[in-house]
Amino acid sequence: MELLQQQDGRLLSTFRLAAVLPTVYQCYSTEDLAKVPLSPRPRVHGEGSNTVFIGPELPALCRYMASAKTLNWLDDDRAELHVEAGHNWHQLVQWTVSQGLWGLENLALIPGSVGAAPVQNIGAYGVELADRCRYVDFYHWDQQRLERMTVEQCRFGYRDSVFKREMAGRGVIVAVGLMLTRQPQRVLTYQGLDQLSADCSLQQVFDTVITVRQAKLPDPAELANCGSFFKNPLLPDADVKALQQRYTAMPVYSQGNGYSKVPAAWLIDQAGFKGKQVGDVGCYHKQPLVLVNYGQGQASDLLTLIAQIQHQVHSRFGVTLEPEVQLVGRQATTQTSVVS
After folding, report:
1. Residue 29 among the catalytic residues
2. In what helix (H) or strand (E) does residue 291 lie, and over which residues does it extend?
3. DSSP strand pairing (78-84 vs 171-181)
4. Which residues contact 107 (CB under 8 A, 6 or more apart)?
5. Which of 22, 151, 186, 332 has fewest C-beta within 10 Å?
6. Got the DSSP string for 167-180?
7. Residue 170 CB partners (closer than 8 Å, separation 6+)
8. Is residue 340 part of a domain?
9. Residue 70, CB half-sphere, CA atoms under 13 Å: how many?
10. In terms of domains, do 146 and 276 share one?
11. What is the pLDDT of residues 194-246, one digit of tens each?
């Protein structure tokens, strides 16, 4: 285990607000995890692509860094891929495509680590992690034991899981098991992919997803951001129908369960926030769902912009936007409705 102190928070969050992390424990095995002090209990942290630090009072962090992977063939077509939590997600997707394995290609270019993927149940272009997940290996702090949790036990939902709720703070995801196949699993229903042919190759799907994402989403290495900042709201069909009577151009994606998804980006755009800035934090000019730090952004700028967006969208549409990005720190919980 490596013990790091007084770490620059800008190196541990892709939003890069100034912050100081008092203690960071970097672990490479369950034996390392057993050595981590639990009073106060540290916050589990990955690559920081979905986390913004709002100082000055910040918790200790625990990072699980092991990143090995093992491919186990179940038959001639299906394979189970066991991946440790510290592996970079996009690099994993690249590797599966290079091996001719279908399943993760729609999830290309999502930033972050494998261990963070189940927490959010990451998803894009019609595919969620839950669709490909076979199990999650979870280390319990209190019992100091490793449990293999089934997909059912993970209780995945839209950008949600048991790890984000009941299991939050109770332990660490150390590995994920994924089901992949040599047989094509094309999901081409989303805009941008629907132009591909019905017999398109795995590489074509992967390349197209990257092209579509890069056309509207800024690279965190070049412009600080945490990707999509708010969840797309899920609304009862009756509420959606009432909104459509007033806003006929509003995009709607039926979920087939009495609920429909409305793009948060459209709501934010209609509320007039595309390109708007508060200090040096703003809505990206190509995609208002992405909040960006233009270089000198302050925590107060971000909190103000979040509050303005939530207020205006609710006032106009009666819809409450819930952040997808996690704001970490006491100031975050006292000054905004976002819960870290």
Report:
1. no
2. strand 290-293
3. antiparallel
4. 89, 93, 122, 123, 124, 125, 127, 129, 209
5. 22
6. TTTTEEEEEEEEEE
7. 140, 141, 142
8. no
9. 8
10. no
11. 999 999 999 999 999 999 999 989 999 999 999 999 999 999 999 999 999 99
Q: Cα-atom radius of gyration of the chain, to the nearest Å?
A: 20
Q: What percentage of the chain reaches a pLDDT higher than 70?
A: 97
Q: How far apart are CA 318 and CA 302, in angstroms?
A: 22
C-alpha span between 118 and 167 (Å, rounded): 12
Catalytic residue among 13, 113, 161, 228: 228
Domain's final residue, options 161, 180, 212 = 212
Whether 324 sits among the annotated catalytic residues: the reply is yes
Whichever domain contains 195, its CATH number is: 3.30.465.10
Strand-strand pairing, 123-124 and 145-150:
unpaired
Whether 228 is catalytic: yes
Contact (Cβ atoms closer than 8 angstroms) between residue 128 and residue 229: no
Whether residue 169 is found in the same domain as residue 122 = yes
Question: What DSSP designation does 232 have?
Answer: P
pTM, 2 dp = 0.90
Q: What is the pLDDT of residue 337?
A: 35
Q: How many other β-carbons are positioned within 10 Å of the β-carbon of residue 232?
A: 21
Tell me: the pLDDT tens digits for 243-261?
A: 999 999 999 999 988 999 9
From 159, 161, 186, 213, the catalytic residue: 159
Number of folded domains that form the chain: 3
